[in-house]
Amino acid sequence: MNLILLGPPGAGKGTQAKRLEERFGAKQLSTGDLLRAAIAEGSELGRKVEGIMARGELVPDDIVVDLIAERISSPECAKGFILDGFPRNVSQADALDRMLGQKGAKLHAVIELGVDDEILVSRIEKRASEMEGAVRADDNVDALRKRLKVYHEQTAPLIAYYGEKGILKTVDGMADIDAVSRQIEEVLETAA
Ligand SMILES: Nc1ncnc2c1ncn2[C@@H]1O[C@H](COP(=O)(O)OP(=O)(O)O)[C@@H](O)[C@H]1O
Fold it and tell me: EC number(s) of the enzyme (predicted)?
């Protein structure tokens, strides 16, 4: 099962990706998590992306495309993958298409979690206040606004991109976590 979870920051992609991982044995690949791990390690890559991420901007395509290309063919993805945070623009989606073409693999579905901007801002503020000292560098209101702007300008066009390919499934991301999971299971049954 090869899936993409699409949706704005704070839509709950990570939470649903973890649940899908348990359910199907497919591997969650979160570019945000991979980049944060590189920063935590203090690697050259981490140093390169740290400031960009803190500002809520996108890191260069070649960096995230390489991160994904490396993992998608690894044994951990033997049962498939759940992409969370990638692709984030059309050029990344085209790169993914080429990668999958080379492997002879295909995407089963792209699941869009639909959420209102206002609800997102309050979710992120809540996340920031709950995490206190451990807050992510980009979980402040300015960076969030920037991330939402980038989402609308660069990532939202992927809704039409995958809609045209006939593999887009939209669920209501504002429902509670279990209800979102159930909706995803339902749309996957029809996608199989
Ligand atoms: N596919 C990607 N392309 C470019 N930058 C990315 C990508 N994935 C993650 N990032 C960087 O990591 C940051 C955090 O991403 P992520 O963890 O997915 O959080 P969120 O969905 O809450 O914004 C982004 O704002 C961006 O700087």
Answer: 2.7.4.3
